[in-house]
Amino acid sequence: MKRRVVITGMGVAAPNAHGLEDFTAALRAGRSGIRHIKELEDLNFACQVGGIPENFEAVRRRYFDHEKLMSINDNIGYASVAAMDAWRDAGFDVPDGDSEDVDWDTGVILGSGIGGMDTIARTVVPMVNAGRVRRMGSRIVEQVMNSGTSARIAGLLALGNQVTSNSSACSTGNEAIIAALERIRAGAAERMLAGGSEGASPYIWSGFDAMRVICRKFNDDPERASRPLSASAAGFVPGAGGAVLVLEELETARRRGARIYAEVAGGAVNCGGQRRSGSMTAPNPEGVRRCIRQAVADAAISPRDVQAINGHLTATYADPVEVRNWAEALERTPADFPFINSTKSMIGHCLGAAGAIESVAVALQLHGGFLHPSVNSEDVHPEIEAYGDKIPREVLEMPELRVIAKAGFGFGDVNSCLIFKKWEDA
Amino acid sequence: MEEKEIFKEMIDILRLYAKDKEGLDKATMATHILDDLKVNSARLVDVIIKCEDVFGIAIEDDEADKIRTVGDAVALIGKKLA
Q1: Cβ contacts (< 8 Å) between A67 and chain B: which residues?
Q2: Which of A54, A254, A350, B11 sits at 20 to 30 Å (Cα–Cα) from A243?
Q3: What is the pLDDT of residues A346-382, one digit of tens each?
Q4: Chain A residues with CB inside 8 Å of B45's CB?
Q5: Which CATH number fits domain A5-255: 3.60.15.10, 3.20.20.70, 1.20.58.60, 3.40.47.10?
Q6: Where does B3-81 sit in CATH, by number?
């Protein structure tokens, strides 16, 4: 019998909300966090809209003293705030700096797709080019190293189990949760903070703009720009933020009387090998289907048990392909297809944070018995018109909701799929 | 600038980095920056950069390496300003 793993705490810094209460309200209302970004316009980006957590500078100042703020760039800020929120939400205190106690049973796996690009672009490159390395100070490495987020969180919370940062492009957040699930199942940790984060920076988004894969047709109408599943989808909207889930071994959680949001029943990661129409930037459909089936098998459920899907669904040409892959992998027709929504329709594509933020959305939906609307999908893409009724346009109250599948796909042809179950003490 | 003024400025600079804030209030010229004030050794370069900015001086790496106590820093800065 596998050790069971449940979610006992969550924290989220998303473009449309900070904190679980605010995020739940945003999800229910279909509130968009997509805004016009003046800096992108000034820099001649084709896409001039994005999803950035609002008023976050003030949030950061509430959480960290001056000394720490000097070491916390955009990416690390979202991750650290989400981690502290999740830790407190799970019922723990954030230790004060004077305590020498270490929590050897808890670790962190939290990654980014791109990482500390703002520090590189605004400090490292200009200062190195100007011959001023001596003046850069001591805080560069900890902000640009790939493990900058997990390292900072370990220090804030005095965590002594595995502390690492993963990276698998837009699959990063999901992958972190799956790695944490496996570590707890293996008995190597009792509790893991898992998630992802990504900074908001034109330097991160420029490469996507140059590829013409981000949305340039809705600069005057930002809230309508992120249009997963829609006939008028025009590319993804870049987003930023962070989210952390506290995953905990079931008996450990029970012993301390923890509140449980949902069970992480199973998960799988794989790669399509960049073959059979898969490439660096497009998924091999067979890889996607195998990943979904493996996650379903890992959760020891039937494909028929999946009642809802929180898709990768970014608002590109790939959305209809994804829907058909789900149908085939779960052995469904349009008539008995699960409900399907895209959290990205409200927050854009938060890259390395996407899977984590969207997994928090999934757990909140299971816990609260609702499905959030997938906004901007009124004009369903013609290739998936038959699935149109399965896309919630308004919040659906669904107390009978038991199982949601969540997927993420990333550059490199990498895939991840998670199966979340409503927690019912039985 | 008098030694007393330099000392006061130096304590203000260290306030950003010292983990032991109480030790800072009781600091003397003999106070050891790393051991007594619990400044993270990696941050010493930031203390030096801050000193360069605040006092308008340049401190060579070899000179910085010799600083152990608040008094060492004050003496070096005093010499540079003289």
Answers
A1: 16-17
A2: A254
A3: 999 999 999 999 999 999 999 999 999 999 999 999 9
A4: 137-138
A5: 3.40.47.10
A6: 1.10.1200.10
